Amino acid sequence: SGEVLAALILRMNNMEWSTDSGIAYQRYVRDVKSKSELIKMPTLSLEGALCKEISFSEAGKIILEYEWLGTMGLTQTFFGVYLDGVLSGAVAFGFFQAMNKSKYQKFIGEKYKDHGCQLTRGASAYWAHPHTGSMLIGFSLKEMGNKGYKYAIAFSDPDAGEIGTLYQATNWFYIGSTKDRHWDIYNKKSGTCVLNDRDAFKQMGFRGRNKLLEYISDKPDLELRERKPKARYIKPIGTKKENKEMLKYLIPHSKPYPKRKENLI
């Protein structure tokens, strides 16, 4: 389709975007698409918008066009928002990092440590209403709460120019940056990530700096880069009573939201 073709062209050309450009990668994709002559669509109103659980393939139609890493990740549950019957935004949840008891117990307490989910992916079309993401996140968190989850975690990636704007807009708690070290493989010419360490393990069974260096040793167009620490956010999604109990642990660990540099947009 024209949308997919436009996305491929932009990714191949690296879209004249960099981490220090002052806007997130997804925002830049939307801005460029809105000016593309390949597609012309009006921005739709949120009036009559329909949010619902959707399939992996449906979510991928939106997420894969705008997602910085270009993958769906380890995701299992998906929600979308339809405007005038057209899918305009999608989010995806997975349950892996949130189930690491040692990482999140101090933030939400012993009682709820095993009941977390992770908002792993999310994107909206360039023609979607500016508040589409906030609406969808609010709806999806309520649905995940109905499924029995008590808290959600999410990360914003500085390599993609992200600071977690939507998480801040929807009142998540910021708990600082990740501490683990990870390495990803980039194309030297385009500057785009072609393989992250998680997908390397999933697809080829290896991970770690030395293994990745060995993999690219005969590929001069590729290079290894250490991933910048990601900003971490948590949102209680249980009942009022449960959330109150979790906040006793969470509030002392919460930090001021990260902001963009003053010289950036």
Task: Kindly summarize this structure in a few lines.
This protein has 265 residues and is α+β, with helices and mostly antiparallel strands.
Which features would summarize this protein structure in a list?
265 residues, alpha+beta, 3-stranded antiparallel beta sheet, 9 helices, 33% helix, disordered N terminus
Could you walk me through the main structural features you see in this protein, from its secondary elements to its overall organization?
- Helices cover 33% and strands 23% of the residues.
- The chain has nine helices and ten strands.
- The protein has helices at residues 2-12, 25-35, 56-66, 101-108, 132-146, 165-169, 197-204, 209-215, 240-250; strands spanning 50-54, 77-83, 86-94, 116-124, 151-156, 173-177, 183-187, 193-196, 222-226, 231-236.
- The strands form two sheets. Strands 1-2-3-4-5-10-6 form a seven-stranded mixed sheet, sandwiched between helices. Strands 8-7-9 form a three-stranded antiparallel sheet.
- Strand 4, helix 5 (132-146) and strand 5 form a beta-alpha-beta unit.
- The relative contact order is 0.15.
- Mean pLDDT is 80; it is low at 1-15.
Note the topology.
Elements lengths: L1 H11 L12 H11 L14 E5 L1 H11 L10 E7 L2 E9 L6 H8 L7 E9 L7 H15 L4 E6 L8 H5 L3 E5 L5 E5 L5 E4 H8 L4 H7 L6 E5 L4 E6 L3 H11 L15
Parallel strand pairs: 4-5
Antiparallel strand pairs: 1-2, 2-3, 3-4, 5-10, 6-10, 7-8, 7-9
Total number of β-strand segments? 10
User: Could you give the distance between the termini?
Assistant: 32 Å
Unreliable sequence segments: 1-15
Helix content: 25-40%
